[in-house]
């Protein structure tokens, strides 16, 4: 990404980064998270409040900061989603009873062998002795 928004000297071109932000922040807006994570005229400056010349290392430090700038908070989640969208888990969902799962798999830390598919977990489904108050562990591989 940086190579596409920087000049030949390896410095960030703010107008290109601003355009990049406008494009990538369309995604949270599309899922009704625009008020929290969408593009605003302050998005660019929230990433680099005082720096005038941004190098690759400064750019990476900002993207990997904990916490990152508010407008970039959702990026790690999107990365994790893309990473697991085709991951297959050969186990049954304890709620919907589908015989295998794709994407994230969630395992209860209290209920023996209680596992939810991504869809059921995100919808807050629970069955039997399991409660939504129980701690769940997210798995991105089998």
UniProtKB/TrEMBL annotation:
UniProt KW keywords: Metal-binding, Zinc, Zinc-finger
InterPro entries: EF-hand-dom_pair, EF-hand_dom_typ2, KCMF1/Dystrophin, Znf_ZZ, Znf_ZZ_sf
Keyword Zinc-finger: yes
BP term (GO), one: synaptic signaling
Keyword Zinc-finger (UniProt): yes
Highest taxon listed in the record's lineage: Eukaryota
Gene3D superfamilies, per the entry: 3.30.60.90, EF-hand
GO cellular component, one term: plasma membrane
Transmembrane domains' residue ranges: none
Ranges where the ZZ-type domain occurs: 88-142
Stated name of the protein: DTNB protein
Source species of the chain: Columbina picui (Picui ground-dove)
